[in-house]
Amino acid sequence: MPLRPSGAGSRITCARNIIAAPARGLYLTPTPRPHASRSASAMAESLIPKDRIPWRHLVLFGWLPSALKILAYRLLLGYHIGRGVRFGFGGIVVGKSVEIGDHVEIGFLAIVQGRTIRIGRHSSVGTMSYLSCETIEMGEDAKIREQVYVGGPQLPESRFALGSRTIILQLTSINPTKPVIIGDDTGIGGHCLIFTHGVWLSGLEGYPVTYQPVTLGKSVWLPWRVFVMPGSTIGDGTVIGANSLVSGSIPPNSLAVGSPAKVIRSAPEFPTKLSESERAALVETIMAEFDRYARHSGVEVQEQSPFRAYRYRGKAWRLLWLRHG
Q1: Are 131 and 118 contacting, i.e. CB atoms less than 8 angstroms apart?
Q2: Residues 197, 178: contact at Cβ < 8 Å?
Q3: Which residue has the higher pLDDT, 62 or 7?
Q4: The pTM is what?
Q5: Which of 116, 192, 117, 279 is nearest to 106 (CA)?
Q6: CA distances (Å), 171 to each of 71, 131, 191, 294, in order?
C-alpha cells in the first residue's frame, strides 16, 4: 500500500525526516504514518507524486467527439490508430508509444495510461474503467468490462499483459506493480482481486514485504470473487472455485477451491472427456440457444443446408455447419 504524506509541506517533512536506526542503516519515514512500510516504490511515490487522473489530457482531449479525438491523437501525439476505432465521451488513452488496432472501443470516461500501450483489434475497455501501468498490452478481441481497475505503485518493469479472446468482468481490481501476465482465452469474473505486492508495516521490523509477479495461463477461469496473491501461478486449463484464495502454484488442467485454494480434481479426470456423440449433442444445444437469442434480438434465421443464414439490418452472414454422421 503506497505511502501518502498529507498536509501542507508534508513532502518536505517526509524528505527531512531521515532516521538513523542503529545497525539498520538509513530510511525515510513520513511523519503522519510512523509505522508505515519503508518500501522503495512507496517512498518514490511519496517523494515523486504522480496524478492518478491525467486532468490536463482529459480537459484537452476527453470532451472531443470520437472522430476529432482520433484525428488529434494521430496528428498531435503521433498515435497509431486503426480503422473503425471509437472513443466514448471522456474516454482517453495517454502514452508515449501508443498502437490501437482496428475496431477498438474505449468507453465513456475510460482511462488508459502508460508509457507503452498496445491494444489489439476488436478489443474494448468498458465505461469508467481505469488502466494505469508502465506497459499495457491487450491482444485481439480482449474485453475489459465496466469499472475495472488496473493500477497501483509502478516500477520500471510494471506490465499488464492481457491475451487474445479474454474477458475481465466488472469491478475487478488488478495490481501490476510487478508483471501480471494473463494468457489467451482466459476469463476473469467480477469482483476478483489480483495483487503483485503486499506491504504496509515496516520490513525493517520484520513484517512481510512481498513483490512478485502473477501469471495466469491460457484457458484459465476465475469465477467471481477470487483473490490471487503475489507470486501465484495458475496453469493452462485450470478452474478456480468462486470465493477462493490462490497462493502459490496451481498446476495445469486442475480444479482448485478454498482458502487457500487446493486442487480437488486434476487430469485426466478434469476436465471431463466427452464422446463424439456428446459433443454433437452439445453443439446442437448451443446452436438452438444461439438461434433463439438471435431471433429475440430481431435477427432473421434461416436454415439452408449445409448453411445457416442470418440477416440483420441489411447485412447477411452464413454459417457452415457440418453435422457428425
Answers
A1: no
A2: yes
A3: 62
A4: 0.83
A5: 117
A6: 31, 13, 5, 28
Residue range 128-162, pLDDT digits in tens: 999 999 999 999 999 999 999 999 999 999 999 99
Question: Which three cell numbers, joined as nine digits, stand for 265?
Answer: 480434481
Torsion of CA 160, 93, 42, 215, to 10 degrees: -10
> Is the torsion defined by CA of 198, 200, 203, 206 positive or negative?
negative
CB burial string 185-224: b at 16+ within 10 A, e below: bbbbbbbbbbbbbbbbebeeeeeebebbbbbbbbbbbbbe
Domains of the chain: 10-47 (no CATH), 55-266 (2.160.10.10), 276-320 (no CATH)
Contacts of the segment 58-61: beta carbons below 8 A, 24+ positions apart: 58/90, 58/92, 58/111, 61/92
Residue type, 324: H
Among 44, 55, 53, 58, CA closest to 89: 58
Closest CA to 214 of 186, 236, 195, 198: 195
Dig out the grid coordinates for 68 from the structure: 476529432
Enter the C-alpha cell of residue 147. Answer: 469499472
What pairing do the DSSP bridges indicate for beta strands 25-28 and 18-21? antiparallel
How is residue 271 written as a grid cell? 476436465
